[in-house]
Amino acid sequence: MNEVFEELRTALYSVWHRRWLALGVTWAVCLLGWAVVAMIPNSYESKARIFVDVEDVLSEQLGIAGDGQEEIMKVRQTLLSSINLEKVITSTQLGENITERSDMDAAIARLAEKVRVESEQDNLFSITAEIGVSSLSDSENALLARNVVQKLLDIFREEHISGNRAEVSGAIADLNKQLDARKLELEEAEERRMAFEAQYPDLIGGSGTLIARVQQARTELRDIEADLAAAEIALNSINNQIASTPRTIVGGGNAVGPQAALLQAQGQLAELRARGLTDQHPDVVSTTRQVEILTRQAAAGGQDAGGTPNPAYASLVGLRADRQANIGALQARRAALQSTIASLAASQASEPAVAAEANRISRDYDVLRTNYEKLLEDREKLRTRGDVIDETSQFKFDLIDPPVVPRKPAAPNRPLLLIGVLIAGIGAGAGVAYAMSQLRSSFATPNKLERAMGLPVIGSISLTVSEAAKVLQRKRLKQFAGACAGLFGVLLILLAIEIVSVGTIA
Questions:
Q1: I need a surface site. Which of 189, 214, 238, 481 has the fewest CB within 10 A?
Q2: Residue extents of the structural domains in the chain
Q3: What is the pLDDT of residues 257-281, one digit of tens each?
């Protein structure tokens, strides 16, 4: 540890011993560095913040709203393309005196490094341009930075609006080509389907449809058999009523008393049975008892030689004819369904290859028709979206912070650079002084001499300075302090000039 302190003390002594050399190097480095810093042109930064509304209410109501983020990302990626940067250069002062293509490419490369497009939030973007052209004044550079950002904003709008329109138009053209191809395929599939159905009418729609038709026919057959059973029960009931109803009524139209009452009761009973009520129904039981009582009363009162036709009997006979006709129709329908089921089952069992072909034709036709209808729907949505873009695109962008002419330079940080040059100058001076001390064959301490020679050092003699020499040393020390103070004074003057000049820009 002592050796480290000794080396440090030796280095400080070496630098101090050659302090005028160190100070001269420091002055030279500082003056050169400060001159370089003064020649660096000021760069001015202009920034704009823009809000992009990706939630289009009209498009959402029409059911054609897209994600929106994809469109913004695409515009963001293409905004700083070479074509767009060339537009910015040609429309601003950056394009002055550029005649060769190589110069334009170099200008595009430089501008690409100075422009940034960043996403602050999901819908909030910032466009920043930092411009510093050495051939322009500070006010011109500040105005140019604002103009570059403004031009980028204009391109942003144009890229979104015209880009969306071109994209929609191109997509519609592609869909039209696809629709034409799908239309031809669909027409060919329809022709194949019609030819197959003409040859095998029972297999229309494929085996799946055939199975569905068999199941539907069997379901309908079960319903018809249930209706037929109910109709036969009703016919038997009508036959029983006819058997118990007399064809004529004794006493003709002038019948009075029990005969008239019997006629009325029989009519009521026939009406109840015609409604489908069974013999166990309370109303039927009551009316039947009444008919029996009136029949005994009419028999006890005697019968006339002639009689008139019983209207109840005639009504029952007509009702029986209707029921018989209904049963005949149900039986014919049942026979037809049974024949259809047998025919469909036979077709399915005897023609498996044909059924498979029917499945394929039906499946291909359904797929082609679904795809064609989907393409038609997509085309109409794109057309509607194109109309929405034309009508509502101007409301999608909201400029939060417009670009302004900056009043202070963004770069370089001259105060920091000036101080850094001073530190670098001091370090260079100290380094040169220390290097020079290492080139000399002198020793700063007895220990270093002892280590270098490998011999013990018996003693050392201190330097004795006369009064005249001391006065001269103090004078030179004051001169050295004044030179150092002058160095810092120059730095302060440069810092003051920088502060005043920044305050008067633009």
A1: 481
A2: 2-40+412-503, 44-176+380-401, 206-365
A3: 566 677 777 777 777 777 777 777 7
23 is written with which tokens? 């100070």
Topology of domain 44-176+380-401, CATH: Bacterial polysaccharide co-polymerase-like (3.30.1890)
Tokens of 127: 């466009």
Q: What's the CA gap between 393 and 387, in Å, rounded?
A: 10
Measured distance CA(299)–CA(350) in Å, rounded = 71
Residue with tokens 């394929």: 360
Whole-angstrom distance, CA of residue 136 vs CA of residue 36: 18
The whole-number average pLDDT for the span 331-347 is 79
Digit-coded pLDDT (tens) for 125-151: 788 888 888 788 878 888 888 888 888
Q: Given this model, what pLDDT does residue 391 score?
A: 46
Neighbours of 86 (CB within 10 A): 16
The dihedrals phi and psi of 275, each to the nearest 5 degrees, come to -80, -5
Range list of β-strands (E), 359-478: 397-401
Check: CB of residue 127 under 8 Å from CB of residue 80: no
Sheet strands (E) in 195-331? 248-250, 307-309
Phi and psi at residue 86, to the nearest 5°: -65, -35
